[in-house]
Amino acid sequence: MSFPMPSKSSAAEFLRILRERGFLHQCSDPADDLSGLAGAAPGGLLTAYVGFDATAASLHVGHLLSIMALRWLQRTGNRPIVLIGGGTTKIGDPSFRDTTRPMLDDAQIAANAAGLRRVFGQYMTFGDGPADAVMVDNADWLDGLDYVPFLRDIGRHFTINRMLSFESVRQRMEREQPLTFLEFNYMILQAYDFLELSRRHGCLLQMGGSDQWGNIVNGIELARRVERRELFGLTTPLLTTASGTKMGKTAGGAVWLNADARSPFDFWQFWRNTEDADVGRFLRLFTELPLDEIARLEQLQGAEINEAKIVLATEATRLCHGAAEAEKAAAAAGSPFAPGGDGLPEIALRREGTGGVPLVDALVAAGLCASKGAARRLIREGGARLDGEPVTDEAAALTAIAVLSAGRKRHIRVILTP
Length: 418
Hints:
Layout: H1 11-21, E1 26-27, H2 35-40, E2 47-53, H3 64-75, E3 79-85, H4 106-123, E4 134-137, H5 139-142, H6 147-153, H7 160-165, H8 167-174, H9 181-201, E5 205-209, H10 213-227, E6 232-236, E7 249-250, E8 253-254, H11 264-272, H12 279-286, H13 291-298, H14 305-321, H15 323-334, E9 346-350, E10 357-358, H16 359-365, H17 372-380, E11 384-386, E12 389-390, E13 397-398, E14 402-406, E15 410-417
Parallel strand pairs: 2-3, 2-5, 3-4, 5-6, 9-15
Antiparallel strand pairs: 1-6, 7-8, 10-13, 11-12, 11-14, 14-15
């Protein structure tokens, strides 16, 4: 995969794009124009990383801001590092969590890490060139650490007082929720990652979500104390929709990026259902459209705003799943009842005896409703459809292949098996 390069290639150009498109939330550079960070990059070219723990087999839409930041880093001629947290996953990041993360064994972590790696090839080019992305696993250096020497050489630079001052920790303490010694170590290990990447790869910048600010600052301070290295941190904003919900959360759960966890069609539909007030912001963050074209699209009113939503859905799906899948999803959404479906997701359900499948059960099994109660409400309110026609009988059943819909935007083809 190759990228059309912008006219300028530099750290300064990358930082300008982040600011213009709304990625920038916090930066450790005290200069308003980020000239300190830009000037510290050797030859004006920047190496930066984002870490992703292997807590699930797929990343989700909540990770996309960081992934898009890495993509823009590469597009401006700089070098991105993707860090897979094979080591830190064994500890669990306590940042802004109410409970300790479940402990995963080595086999689960390895399987999850393999799932995470699949998505990055869609967004970045990996290789040995000066601007090629690099993928590393922190288990390579964390798993072999000797505990006592590590505590002596690294742990002495951290104080419990400082750790307790971070907002993510303070909230847990105020709620009187347990925070284990194991979780305290996570901050030290992430800080050590930053120092190790600066040694191995000349990494100058760590990026992440705003919930990672405390962990990032720890790494900056550790490098300064241990080796007098000047490193930098940058965070992206915590995104919520115009209605106040957390970005990427739906009634059906997380919006996964891997196709085997969420189909390209459903991924397309997620973006197509964006609230009107969010369209312009999401176009800037999750597509590479020129800003003047985005400005035109976000000015559309009434029914015309659907044009902008279709562009957003298609462009976001193209980046994640490729142009062919994006076009199939757009075509299927435009004509969901066409013969063959052309990309419409399918589910096979077993008939009950010689009859069909109760509509209530089918809505739940297809993921269109979270429970049978929700399915019954959808039917009563006229939101359930078979082949485009409303169904209001809660006792109705599917007896043949049909397109099952929740509202006018979410569709799935149901195939009945003996």
